[in-house]
Amino acid sequence: MSATIAAIDLGASSGRVLTARVGADRLDITGIHRFPNRPVRLAGTLHWDILGLYADVLDGLQRVDAPRLDSLGIDSWAVDYGLLDRDGRLIGNPVHYRDERTTAVVEQVHRRVSPQRLYQVTGLQHLPFNTLYQLAAEPFLAQAATLLLIPDLISFWLTGQRGAEQTNASTTGLYDAGRGTWSDELIEALSLPAGIFPGLRAPGAPAGRLLPDAGAFGGTPVTAVASHDTASAIAAVPATGPDFAYISCGTWSLAGVETTAPILTEAGRAANFTNETGVDGTIRYLRNVMGLWLLSESLRAWKAEPADLGALLGHAADLPALRSVVDPNDPAFLPPGDMPARIARRCAETGQPVPGTRAEVVRCVMDSLALGHRAAIRQALALSGQRADVVHIVGGGAQNALLCQLTADATGIPVVAGPVEATALGNIGVQARSLGLIPGLPSLRSLVSATQPLLHYEPRGSAASWNEAADRLPT
Ligand code: ADP
Ligand code: LRH
Asked: Which intervals hold domain Carbohydrate kinase FGGY C-terminal (predicted)?
Protein backbone atom coordinates (compact mmCIF):
# COMPACT_ATOMS: atom_id res chain seq x y z
CA MET A 1 0.00 0.00 0.00
CA SER A 2 1.35 3.47 -0.83
CA ALA A 3 0.07 7.04 -1.08
CA THR A 4 0.92 10.34 -2.74
CA ILE A 5 1.47 12.99 -0.10
CA ALA A 6 2.38 16.68 -0.42
CA ALA A 7 4.25 18.95 1.98
CA ILE A 8 4.15 22.72 1.94
CA ASP A 9 7.36 23.72 3.72
CA LEU A 10 8.09 27.42 4.17
CA GLY A 11 11.61 28.21 5.37
CA ALA A 12 12.97 31.64 6.19
CA SER A 13 15.01 31.69 2.98
CA SER A 14 12.87 29.59 0.63
CA GLY A 15 9.67 27.61 0.42
CA ARG A 16 8.77 24.48 -1.46
CA VAL A 17 5.84 22.26 -2.37
CA LEU A 18 7.24 18.75 -2.29
CA THR A 19 5.42 15.55 -3.21
CA ALA A 20 6.42 12.02 -2.37
CA ARG A 21 5.18 8.51 -2.93
CA VAL A 22 5.23 6.79 0.45
CA GLY A 23 4.76 3.21 1.63
CA ALA A 24 6.07 1.04 4.46
CA ASP A 25 9.41 0.66 2.67
CA ARG A 26 9.42 3.47 0.13
CA LEU A 27 9.85 7.23 0.37
CA ASP A 28 10.42 8.61 -3.12
CA ILE A 29 10.41 12.36 -3.72
CA THR A 30 8.39 12.75 -6.92
CA GLY A 31 8.42 16.54 -7.32
CA ILE A 32 9.73 19.76 -5.78
CA HIS A 33 8.66 23.28 -6.65
CA ARG A 34 10.88 25.81 -4.85
CA PHE A 35 10.40 29.54 -4.51
CA PRO A 36 12.35 32.25 -2.69
CA ASN A 37 11.07 33.85 0.51
CA ARG A 38 11.92 37.55 0.33
CA PRO A 39 11.13 39.77 3.32
CA VAL A 40 9.89 43.28 2.59
CA ARG A 41 10.76 46.38 4.60
CA LEU A 42 7.85 48.80 4.47
CA ALA A 43 7.42 52.01 6.46
CA GLY A 44 10.25 51.03 8.79
CA THR A 45 8.94 47.53 9.58
CA LEU A 46 10.30 44.23 8.23
CA HIS A 47 7.45 42.01 6.96
CA TRP A 48 7.02 38.62 5.41
CA ASP A 49 5.45 38.77 1.95
CA ILE A 50 2.69 36.47 3.15
CA LEU A 51 0.39 36.89 0.15
CA GLY A 52 3.30 36.31 -2.23
CA LEU A 53 4.09 33.11 -0.31
CA TYR A 54 0.45 32.02 -0.48
CA ALA A 55 0.44 32.65 -4.24
CA ASP A 56 3.63 30.58 -4.55
CA VAL A 57 1.99 27.77 -2.56
CA LEU A 58 -1.00 27.77 -4.95
CA ASP A 59 1.37 27.85 -7.90
CA GLY A 60 3.32 24.92 -6.42
CA LEU A 61 0.11 22.91 -5.97
CA GLN A 62 -0.86 23.72 -9.56
CA ARG A 63 2.40 22.15 -10.73
CA VAL A 64 2.00 18.90 -8.79
CA ASP A 65 2.19 16.11 -11.34
CA ALA A 66 -0.14 13.50 -9.84
CA PRO A 67 -3.73 12.45 -10.55
CA ARG A 68 -4.68 12.96 -6.89
CA LEU A 69 -3.20 13.68 -3.47
CA ASP A 70 -4.02 11.52 -0.48
CA SER A 71 -3.03 14.17 2.05
CA LEU A 72 -1.35 17.56 2.40
CA GLY A 73 0.47 19.17 5.34
CA ILE A 74 1.92 22.61 6.04
CA ASP A 75 4.92 23.67 8.11
CA SER A 76 6.96 26.86 8.41
CA TRP A 77 9.40 28.76 10.58
CA ALA A 78 8.16 29.26 14.13
CA VAL A 79 7.09 32.19 16.29
CA ASP A 80 5.46 34.54 13.73
CA TYR A 81 1.72 34.99 13.23
CA GLY A 82 -1.10 36.77 11.46
CA LEU A 83 -4.13 38.31 13.17
CA LEU A 84 -7.68 37.89 11.86
CA ASP A 85 -10.67 40.11 12.56
CA ARG A 86 -14.12 38.79 13.45
CA ASP A 87 -14.89 38.12 9.79
CA GLY A 88 -11.68 36.15 9.27
CA ARG A 89 -9.90 38.94 7.39
CA LEU A 90 -6.16 39.39 7.86
CA ILE A 91 -5.36 42.49 9.94
CA GLY A 92 -2.13 44.13 8.85
CA ASN A 93 0.70 42.09 7.42
CA PRO A 94 2.67 39.53 9.45
CA VAL A 95 5.89 41.01 10.82
CA HIS A 96 9.26 39.26 10.44
CA TYR A 97 10.89 37.99 13.63
CA ARG A 98 14.04 39.91 12.66
CA ASP A 99 12.18 43.20 12.92
CA GLU A 100 13.47 45.15 15.88
CA ARG A 101 10.06 46.04 17.34
CA THR A 102 10.55 43.80 20.39
CA THR A 103 13.79 45.42 21.59
CA ALA A 104 11.87 47.99 23.62
CA VAL A 105 9.39 45.59 25.24
CA VAL A 106 11.43 42.64 26.54
CA GLU A 107 12.09 44.32 29.89
CA GLN A 108 8.46 45.38 30.13
CA VAL A 109 7.35 41.73 29.74
CA HIS A 110 9.92 40.56 32.30
CA ARG A 111 8.59 43.09 34.83
CA ARG A 112 5.22 41.30 34.58
CA VAL A 113 6.59 37.73 34.55
CA SER A 114 10.16 36.92 35.56
CA PRO A 115 12.37 35.03 33.09
CA GLN A 116 12.60 32.26 35.71
CA ARG A 117 8.81 31.84 35.80
CA LEU A 118 8.57 31.99 32.01
CA TYR A 119 11.10 29.15 31.82
CA GLN A 120 9.31 27.06 34.47
CA VAL A 121 6.06 27.21 32.50
CA THR A 122 7.27 27.10 28.90
CA GLY A 123 10.79 25.59 29.04
CA LEU A 124 11.63 27.96 26.19
CA GLN A 125 15.00 29.62 25.54
CA HIS A 126 14.98 33.39 25.58
CA LEU A 127 14.87 34.70 22.02
CA PRO A 128 13.93 38.39 21.86
CA PHE A 129 11.46 37.68 19.06
CA ASN A 130 9.42 34.94 20.75
CA THR A 131 5.72 35.52 20.12
CA LEU A 132 4.99 36.81 23.62
CA TYR A 133 7.37 39.74 23.07
CA GLN A 134 5.96 40.43 19.60
CA LEU A 135 2.46 40.59 21.08
CA ALA A 136 3.69 43.13 23.63
CA ALA A 137 4.68 45.33 20.67
CA GLU A 138 1.60 44.51 18.53
CA PRO A 139 -0.46 47.56 17.54
CA PHE A 140 -3.48 45.61 16.21
CA LEU A 141 -4.20 43.36 19.17
CA ALA A 142 -7.41 45.17 20.18
CA GLN A 143 -9.00 44.51 16.76
CA ALA A 144 -7.97 40.85 16.64
CA ALA A 145 -10.42 37.95 17.02
CA THR A 146 -7.92 35.17 16.19
CA LEU A 147 -4.17 34.69 16.18
CA LEU A 148 -2.85 32.12 13.71
CA LEU A 149 0.79 31.08 13.53
CA ILE A 150 2.10 31.15 9.95
CA PRO A 151 1.40 27.48 8.99
CA ASP A 152 -2.01 27.69 10.66
CA LEU A 153 -2.71 30.88 8.67
CA ILE A 154 -1.83 29.22 5.35
CA SER A 155 -3.90 26.21 6.42
CA PHE A 156 -6.85 28.51 7.22
CA TRP A 157 -6.65 30.12 3.78
CA LEU A 158 -6.48 26.71 2.11
CA THR A 159 -9.28 25.05 4.13
CA GLY A 160 -11.34 27.69 5.95
CA GLN A 161 -10.59 25.85 9.26
CA ARG A 162 -8.81 27.44 12.24
CA GLY A 163 -6.56 25.73 14.77
CA ALA A 164 -3.23 26.01 16.56
CA GLU A 165 -0.85 23.14 15.95
CA GLN A 166 0.90 22.09 19.13
CA THR A 167 4.60 21.91 18.17
CA ASN A 168 4.53 25.45 16.83
CA ALA A 169 2.39 26.72 19.74
CA SER A 170 5.25 25.52 21.96
CA THR A 171 7.51 28.21 20.43
CA THR A 172 5.30 31.15 21.36
CA GLY A 173 6.31 31.51 25.01
CA LEU A 174 2.61 31.24 25.90
CA TYR A 175 2.34 27.44 25.95
CA ASP A 176 2.44 25.40 29.15
CA ALA A 177 4.87 22.63 28.25
CA GLY A 178 4.02 20.52 31.30
CA ARG A 179 0.26 20.57 30.68
CA GLY A 180 0.33 20.65 26.88
CA THR A 181 -2.11 23.59 26.78
CA TRP A 182 -2.02 27.34 26.23
CA SER A 183 -0.83 28.90 29.50
CA ASP A 184 -3.79 30.72 31.10
CA GLU A 185 -1.39 32.02 33.72
CA LEU A 186 0.93 33.74 31.22
CA ILE A 187 -1.87 34.93 28.94
CA GLU A 188 -3.54 36.57 31.95
CA ALA A 189 -0.32 37.96 33.46
CA LEU A 190 0.50 39.63 30.11
CA SER A 191 -3.10 40.94 29.73
CA LEU A 192 -3.52 39.17 26.37
CA PRO A 193 -7.05 38.47 25.04
CA ALA A 194 -7.40 34.72 25.77
CA GLY A 195 -10.05 34.30 23.04
CA ILE A 196 -7.60 34.90 20.19
CA PHE A 197 -5.76 31.61 20.79
CA PRO A 198 -7.47 28.82 18.85
CA GLY A 199 -7.92 25.24 20.04
CA LEU A 200 -4.79 23.10 19.85
CA ARG A 201 -4.23 20.36 17.30
CA ALA A 202 -1.78 17.50 17.77
CA PRO A 203 0.55 16.59 14.89
CA GLY A 204 -1.26 14.04 12.76
CA ALA A 205 -4.78 15.35 13.51
CA PRO A 206 -7.15 16.19 10.64
CA ALA A 207 -7.17 19.90 9.70
CA GLY A 208 -9.92 20.17 7.08
CA ARG A 209 -9.98 19.78 3.31
CA LEU A 210 -8.58 21.93 0.51
CA LEU A 211 -11.18 24.44 -0.68
CA PRO A 212 -12.09 24.33 -4.38
CA ASP A 213 -10.30 27.65 -5.02
CA ALA A 214 -7.05 26.00 -3.92
CA GLY A 215 -6.96 24.48 -7.44
CA ALA A 216 -7.18 21.03 -8.97
CA PHE A 217 -6.74 19.24 -5.66
CA GLY A 218 -9.83 20.75 -3.98
CA GLY A 219 -11.26 18.28 -1.43
CA THR A 220 -7.84 16.81 -0.51
CA PRO A 221 -7.59 16.07 3.23
CA VAL A 222 -5.21 18.41 5.08
CA THR A 223 -3.35 16.95 8.05
CA ALA A 224 -1.90 19.00 10.92
CA VAL A 225 1.73 17.92 10.78
CA ALA A 226 4.49 18.97 13.16
CA SER A 227 4.00 22.46 11.75
CA HIS A 228 7.11 23.95 13.39
CA ASP A 229 9.66 23.28 10.63
CA THR A 230 12.31 22.23 13.16
CA ALA A 231 9.93 19.67 14.70
CA SER A 232 9.33 18.17 11.25
CA ALA A 233 13.06 18.21 10.44
CA ILE A 234 13.99 16.35 13.62
CA ALA A 235 11.20 13.81 13.05
CA ALA A 236 13.03 12.90 9.83
CA VAL A 237 16.54 12.63 11.28
CA PRO A 238 17.84 9.31 9.87
CA ALA A 239 18.88 8.00 13.30
CA THR A 240 19.26 4.26 13.57
CA GLY A 241 19.96 4.17 17.32
CA PRO A 242 19.09 6.17 20.44
CA ASP A 243 22.45 7.97 20.98
CA PHE A 244 22.40 10.83 18.52
CA ALA A 245 22.67 14.61 18.45
CA TYR A 246 21.34 16.70 15.58
CA ILE A 247 21.74 20.03 13.85
CA SER A 248 18.87 21.24 11.72
CA CYS A 249 21.05 23.48 9.60
CA GLY A 250 19.51 26.19 7.43
CA THR A 251 18.96 29.86 8.12
CA TRP A 252 19.38 28.79 11.78
CA SER A 253 21.39 25.91 13.20
CA LEU A 254 19.18 24.20 15.75
CA ALA A 255 21.64 22.03 17.66
CA GLY A 256 20.87 19.62 20.48
CA VAL A 257 19.44 16.27 21.49
CA GLU A 258 16.03 14.63 21.77
CA THR A 259 14.69 13.87 25.24
CA THR A 260 11.54 12.23 26.54
CA ALA A 261 10.76 14.93 29.11
CA PRO A 262 11.50 18.66 29.50
CA ILE A 263 14.68 19.61 31.38
CA LEU A 264 13.82 22.72 33.36
CA THR A 265 17.02 23.23 35.33
CA GLU A 266 18.50 26.63 36.13
CA ALA A 267 21.73 25.49 34.44
CA GLY A 268 19.76 24.82 31.25
CA ARG A 269 18.08 28.20 31.44
CA ALA A 270 21.42 29.94 32.01
CA ALA A 271 22.82 28.15 28.93
CA ASN A 272 19.69 29.27 27.02
CA PHE A 273 18.52 25.75 26.16
CA THR A 274 15.00 25.28 24.92
CA ASN A 275 12.45 22.48 25.37
CA GLU A 276 10.35 22.54 22.22
CA THR A 277 7.53 20.06 21.71
CA GLY A 278 8.11 17.38 19.10
CA VAL A 279 6.23 14.45 17.63
CA ASP A 280 4.91 11.79 20.07
CA GLY A 281 5.74 13.72 23.23
CA THR A 282 9.44 14.03 22.34
CA ILE A 283 11.26 17.18 23.41
CA ARG A 284 13.88 19.00 21.37
CA TYR A 285 16.44 20.10 23.90
CA LEU A 286 18.48 22.50 21.81
CA ARG A 287 19.93 25.95 21.41
CA ASN A 288 19.56 28.22 18.40
CA VAL A 289 22.90 28.97 16.76
CA MET A 290 22.77 31.90 14.32
CA GLY A 291 23.27 29.50 11.40
CA LEU A 292 23.77 30.04 7.68
CA TRP A 293 22.10 33.43 8.03
CA LEU A 294 25.65 34.70 8.62
CA LEU A 295 26.58 33.36 5.18
CA SER A 296 23.41 34.24 3.26
CA GLU A 297 23.40 37.78 4.65
CA SER A 298 27.07 38.16 3.61
CA LEU A 299 26.21 36.93 0.10
CA ARG A 300 23.38 39.47 0.01
CA ALA A 301 25.76 42.28 1.01
CA TRP A 302 28.10 41.25 -1.85
CA LYS A 303 25.18 40.94 -4.28
CA ALA A 304 26.52 37.46 -5.03
CA GLU A 305 24.50 34.96 -7.07
CA PRO A 306 23.46 31.61 -5.49
CA ALA A 307 25.70 30.00 -8.13
CA ASP A 308 28.76 31.73 -6.57
CA LEU A 309 28.31 29.80 -3.30
CA GLY A 310 30.12 26.60 -4.36
CA ALA A 311 33.25 28.44 -5.55
CA LEU A 312 33.37 30.64 -2.44
CA LEU A 313 33.10 27.61 -0.14
CA GLY A 314 35.83 25.89 -2.20
CA HIS A 315 38.19 28.87 -1.76
CA ALA A 316 37.32 29.08 1.94
CA ALA A 317 38.17 25.38 2.40
CA ASP A 318 41.69 26.06 1.06
CA LEU A 319 42.39 28.78 3.66
CA PRO A 320 44.04 28.17 7.04
CA ALA A 321 41.62 27.08 9.77
CA LEU A 322 40.54 29.19 12.76
CA ARG A 323 42.47 32.33 11.84
CA SER A 324 39.64 34.56 13.10
CA VAL A 325 36.44 33.52 14.86
CA VAL A 326 33.39 35.35 16.17
CA ASP A 327 30.62 34.31 18.54
CA PRO A 328 27.92 33.37 16.00
CA ASN A 329 25.22 34.12 18.58
CA ASP A 330 26.29 37.71 19.08
CA PRO A 331 22.97 39.66 19.03
CA ALA A 332 24.64 42.19 16.72
CA PHE A 333 24.29 39.60 13.90
CA LEU A 334 20.50 39.10 14.30
CA PRO A 335 19.03 41.95 12.21
CA PRO A 336 19.47 42.31 8.46
CA GLY A 337 22.32 44.56 7.34
CA ASP A 338 25.95 44.57 6.30
CA MET A 339 27.12 41.23 7.72
CA PRO A 340 30.78 41.32 6.51
CA ALA A 341 31.21 44.73 8.18
CA ARG A 342 29.76 43.47 11.47
CA ILE A 343 32.02 40.38 11.36
CA ALA A 344 35.07 42.56 10.60
CA ARG A 345 34.23 44.82 13.54
CA ARG A 346 34.03 41.91 15.99
CA CYS A 347 37.32 40.41 14.72
CA ALA A 348 39.06 43.77 15.20
CA GLU A 349 37.56 44.22 18.67
CA THR A 350 38.88 40.82 19.78
CA GLY A 351 42.38 41.49 18.41
CA GLN A 352 42.14 38.94 15.56
CA PRO A 353 43.04 39.43 11.89
CA VAL A 354 40.20 41.12 10.01
CA PRO A 355 39.06 38.92 7.08
CA GLY A 356 40.08 40.80 3.93
CA THR A 357 38.64 38.75 1.07
CA ARG A 358 35.19 37.22 0.60
CA ALA A 359 36.69 33.74 1.00
CA GLU A 360 38.24 34.83 4.31
CA VAL A 361 34.87 36.08 5.56
CA VAL A 362 33.27 32.78 4.52
CA ARG A 363 36.03 30.84 6.28
CA CYS A 364 35.53 32.90 9.44
CA VAL A 365 31.77 32.17 9.29
CA MET A 366 32.31 28.42 8.81
CA ASP A 367 34.86 28.14 11.63
CA SER A 368 32.64 30.24 13.91
CA LEU A 369 29.53 28.17 13.15
CA ALA A 370 31.47 24.95 13.81
CA LEU A 371 32.50 26.43 17.16
CA GLY A 372 28.86 27.32 17.86
CA HIS A 373 27.79 23.76 16.95
CA ARG A 374 30.49 22.36 19.23
CA ALA A 375 29.42 24.46 22.22
CA ALA A 376 25.70 23.71 21.77
CA ILE A 377 26.18 19.95 21.33
CA ARG A 378 28.62 19.62 24.20
CA GLN A 379 26.29 21.51 26.50
CA ALA A 380 23.21 19.60 25.33
CA LEU A 381 24.96 16.33 26.16
CA ALA A 382 26.25 17.58 29.52
CA LEU A 383 22.92 19.10 30.59
CA SER A 384 20.82 16.12 29.48
CA GLY A 385 23.25 13.41 30.61
CA GLN A 386 22.88 11.78 27.17
CA ARG A 387 25.58 10.51 24.84
CA ALA A 388 25.96 10.81 21.09
CA ASP A 389 27.94 8.60 18.75
CA VAL A 390 26.75 10.57 15.71
CA VAL A 391 25.71 14.13 14.89
CA HIS A 392 23.03 14.26 12.19
CA ILE A 393 23.09 17.41 10.09
CA VAL A 394 19.86 17.89 8.14
CA GLY A 395 18.53 20.76 5.99
CA GLY A 396 20.16 22.94 3.33
CA GLY A 397 23.42 23.07 5.33
CA ALA A 398 23.89 19.32 4.81
CA GLN A 399 25.10 20.30 1.31
CA ASN A 400 27.88 22.41 2.81
CA ALA A 401 30.76 19.90 2.93
CA LEU A 402 33.13 22.36 4.62
CA LEU A 403 30.72 23.06 7.48
CA CYS A 404 29.86 19.37 7.91
CA GLN A 405 33.56 18.43 8.08
CA LEU A 406 34.40 21.28 10.47
CA THR A 407 31.48 20.27 12.69
CA ALA A 408 32.84 16.70 12.87
CA ASP A 409 36.31 18.11 13.66
CA ALA A 410 35.05 20.55 16.29
CA THR A 411 32.72 18.15 18.10
CA GLY A 412 35.02 15.13 17.72
CA ILE A 413 31.90 13.13 16.73
CA PRO A 414 31.21 11.62 13.27
CA VAL A 415 28.69 13.58 11.22
CA VAL A 416 26.03 12.06 8.97
CA ALA A 417 24.76 14.74 6.57
CA GLY A 418 21.29 14.60 5.01
CA PRO A 419 18.58 14.63 4.03
CA VAL A 420 18.56 18.18 2.66
CA GLU A 421 14.75 18.16 2.62
CA ALA A 422 14.37 16.67 6.11
CA THR A 423 11.65 19.16 7.06
CA ALA A 424 9.40 18.29 4.13
CA LEU A 425 10.09 14.57 4.68
CA GLY A 426 9.16 14.86 8.37
CA ASN A 427 6.02 16.71 7.35
CA ILE A 428 5.17 13.89 4.92
CA GLY A 429 6.13 11.20 7.45
CA VAL A 430 3.60 12.41 10.02
CA GLN A 431 0.90 12.36 7.33
CA ALA A 432 1.96 8.86 6.28
CA ARG A 433 1.53 7.74 9.86
CA SER A 434 -1.96 9.22 10.01
CA LEU A 435 -2.76 7.28 6.85
CA GLY A 436 -1.56 4.10 8.58
CA LEU A 437 1.43 3.62 6.24
CA ILE A 438 4.14 4.00 8.91
CA PRO A 439 3.72 2.86 12.52
CA GLY A 440 5.69 5.62 14.28
CA LEU A 441 8.72 7.84 14.68
CA PRO A 442 11.42 5.10 14.80
CA SER A 443 10.08 3.53 11.60
CA LEU A 444 9.97 6.95 9.90
CA ARG A 445 13.62 7.49 10.82
CA SER A 446 14.63 4.01 9.59
CA LEU A 447 12.74 4.64 6.36
CA VAL A 448 14.55 7.98 5.83
CA SER A 449 17.89 6.30 6.61
CA ALA A 450 17.22 3.46 4.15
CA THR A 451 15.93 5.61 1.29
CA GLN A 452 17.66 9.02 1.31
CA PRO A 453 21.23 9.85 0.19
CA LEU A 454 23.50 10.52 3.21
CA LEU A 455 27.16 11.60 3.46
CA HIS A 456 29.58 10.64 6.25
CA TYR A 457 32.31 12.86 7.78
CA GLU A 458 34.87 11.51 10.28
CA PRO A 459 36.50 13.90 12.81
CA ARG A 460 40.06 15.04 11.96
CA GLY A 461 42.77 16.70 14.05
CA SER A 462 42.81 17.31 17.76
CA ALA A 463 40.60 19.29 20.11
CA ALA A 464 43.44 21.67 21.07
CA SER A 465 43.00 24.14 18.20
CA TRP A 466 39.23 24.32 18.84
CA ASN A 467 39.78 24.87 22.55
CA GLU A 468 42.21 27.68 21.78
CA ALA A 469 39.78 29.31 19.31
CA ALA A 470 36.89 29.04 21.78
CA ASP A 471 39.05 30.86 24.36
CA ARG A 472 39.31 33.82 21.99
CA LEU A 473 35.56 34.47 22.23
CA PRO A 474 34.05 36.59 24.98
CA THR A 475 32.40 34.33 27.62
P1 ADP B 1 15.57 27.54 5.62
O2 ADP B 1 14.60 26.38 5.76
O3 ADP B 1 15.92 28.17 6.92
O4 ADP B 1 15.12 28.52 4.58
P5 ADP B 1 17.31 25.64 4.22
O6 ADP B 1 17.28 24.38 5.03
O7 ADP B 1 16.55 25.67 2.94
O8 ADP B 1 16.95 26.91 5.11
O9 ADP B 1 18.84 25.95 3.95
C10 ADP B 1 19.24 27.09 3.26
C11 ADP B 1 20.75 27.19 3.28
O12 ADP B 1 21.31 26.03 2.66
C13 ADP B 1 21.30 28.35 2.49
O14 ADP B 1 21.41 29.52 3.31
C15 ADP B 1 22.65 27.86 2.01
O16 ADP B 1 23.68 28.33 2.87
C17 ADP B 1 22.57 26.36 2.12
N18 ADP B 1 22.67 25.75 0.79
C19 ADP B 1 21.71 25.67 -0.15
N20 ADP B 1 22.18 25.06 -1.27
C21 ADP B 1 23.49 24.77 -1.03
C22 ADP B 1 24.53 24.16 -1.79
N23 ADP B 1 24.32 23.73 -3.04
N24 ADP B 1 25.75 24.03 -1.21
C25 ADP B 1 25.97 24.46 0.05
N26 ADP B 1 25.03 25.05 0.80
C27 ADP B 1 23.80 25.20 0.28
C1 LRH C 1 13.81 27.60 11.94
C2 LRH C 1 12.98 28.19 13.05
C3 LRH C 1 13.61 27.97 14.41
C4 LRH C 1 13.07 29.15 15.17
C5 LRH C 1 13.19 30.25 14.12
C6 LRH C 1 12.29 31.42 14.32
O7 LRH C 1 13.25 27.87 10.69
O8 LRH C 1 11.67 27.69 13.04
O9 LRH C 1 13.31 26.73 15.00
O10 LRH C 1 13.74 29.43 16.36
O11 LRH C 1 12.90 29.61 12.88
From this structure: 245-434
